[in-house]
Amino acid sequence: MKAETVESRVAVEQVVIEQSAVELPSPAQPPSPVISKNAIRRSLRASTLDGVFATIFSNITGGVLLSNFLVELNASPTQIGLLASIPMLANLIQPLGAFLGDRTTSRHNYCLWVYGPARCLWLILAAIVALAGWHTIAPQLLVLWTLAIVFVTNFLAALGSASWLSWLAALVPRRLRGRYFGIRNSAASLTNLLSVPILGWVVSAFPGGSIQGYGLILALGVVAGLVSLGFQCLMVDVNPQVQDASGEESGESGEEAGVDKTETAIAPLPFFLTSAPSLLKDTNFLFFLLYFSLWMFAVNLSAPFFNLYMLDNLSIDVRWVTIYNSLQAGANMLMLALWGRLADRVGNRAILITVGILVAVTPLLWLGTGTNSLSSWLWLPSLHVLAGVTWAAIDLCNNNLQLGVAPVRHQATYFAVAAAIAGVSGALGTTAGGFLAEFTNYGGIPGLFALSAIVRLVAILPLVFVHEQRGQSLRQMMRVLFPAKAD
Question: What's 35-245+269-486's CATH class?
Fold first, then answer.
């Protein structure tokens, strides 16, 4: 399957525009009842470019490049697990971020003042790495500085996550979210495909060593992060006060919205007091929370250690590891548009159950890898391609399903609660995985992979009880995919 061209992306964005009637305020003037189609088109394009440059930033400040940096500093598996758990643990303060964001009158300004400082703080670590080239700094001290920067920046950025997601939810029509986010994520995956090998080569081939090489690209990553914020300035702003009111005026039934219509648009009490009763009564959302939290725990029990396994246990050079990750990004990019169209046809829940089973057993396939040529040239590339194909569906459908089960009113609060609970579960998973990986007598990292596969299968069960509007059953999905066999 070929990657989406620029023309096809523009065509899809045009479809989104033609079929949407969004009531949003303009960023440069007071809230307007109707915005132009050109403004929506500009917003969707800007959001895609925002995702491209944000991907470069996140690739440098996380993933295999940051993991390799800590491996070069002789960090322990527990510290690697802690590195992966901090971003998820930071989600605990997303409800606070939703509360603060909903009390503002501009999604754009709030996100700018949250994400701007969070990304600039990475320059501190870049300066420390540069200083280490002139003066000897103990590797463990660099590890501690890295973990501290990760902690502060992720907790700060978590304050904006719910507000940002609610911003996009207001811009993209519900019935076309699968298609648009598929295109947006495809652009991000293409960026992964191109940037990660280049950045990995720069780090590995830098004359001053891989540690100093990482410091160089870290400074470039901050620049990319700030550029992505610049593209957000081109997106139509959303006033949270108007957004909450529109949820009440949209004609949704109480069952669909999941809230009491007698509530005012701006509650005088803190959000967790006004929204908690309706949230606790929303059994569909609670089943989604149960699935999402268990899934995050099960996945992150092993996910942070696949790169560590290749870099440390198999002693594979970082350049090859980045190439493998690029294969995964390429497969992800090629499949996102397909998964997006399929999700629009059959729903997200059925795809999550079907593909989730395959993702669950994937860690078991890693047990067949080794240091031989067969693993290097066939087995490891195949595993990364499989991960790219399957995780394209999981990430896209998890996001879309969350958008679907959360009511429009207090939407940011629901997103924040889901992120907080899933973040704690994911952090517990990575922390537990880090401790278990050090117990070589009990299997070490390979044993951790086997345990993760079992827990992943269990985590899928609550998804069976989640109801998705316009979603189809597994049998209906099979009839769509294989119409001839259905006869």
Answer: mainly alpha
